Amino acid sequence: MYSDKVMDYFLNPRNLGEIENASGVGLVGNAKCGDIMKIYLDIDDNHVIKDAKFKTFGCGAAVATSSISTEMIVGKTIYQAMEVTNKAVTEALDGLPPLKVHCSLLAEDAIRAALWDYTQKKGITIEGLEAPCEDDHDHHHHHDDEDDDCDC
Ligand code: FES
């Protein structure tokens, strides 16, 4: 059911942990499955992501997607990090079972929430970046994925 890569990142997660005094922190949850993901970013003065760590209380796919997405954004600017979408992450993992696609959305949302936190602290904007939802009922995602059943 899972690719070798998903299993590898689940069993040997890279960048697990937290960053003290992080430049940006994002915490998101999926109301349906109850899984929670937290992403910490260390960003330098040129808006380059120097380090990223994650903590995920959730399913194996959520652990794998959050782990690989931290690897994919390190070394990128905050603007380039917007290209690390759930699709990019899913492809990097050689695919996810259809029922698990929403887990990769959680990783994308967590990164964007951390980026948002950073932009708020710095008073800057990133094109295409929206405020993360704080309300469980009123938010509508703009992803066009068929399996987006996250109603966070
Ligand atoms: Fe909830 Fe995967 S089942 S994130």
Description:
The structure is a single chain. Helices cover 34% and strands 15% of the residues. The chain has a three-stranded antiparallel beta sheet. The protein contains four helices and three strands; from the N terminus they run αβββααα. Helix 2 crosses helix 4 (101-122). The protein is globular and about 45 Å long. The chain is an alpha+beta fold and 152 residues long. It binds FE2/S2 (inorganic) cluster (FES). FE2/S2 (inorganic) cluster binds next to helix 2 and helix 4.
What does the secondary structure layout of this molecule look like, with pairings?
Layout: H1 4-11, E1 24-29, E2 36-43, E3 49-57, H2 60-73, H3 86-92, H4 101-122
Antiparallel strand pairs: 1-2, 2-3
Helix pairs in contact: 1-2, 2-3, 2-4, 3-4
The protein binds FE2/S2 (inorganic) cluster.
State the gist of this model.
The protein is α+β, with helices and mostly antiparallel strands.
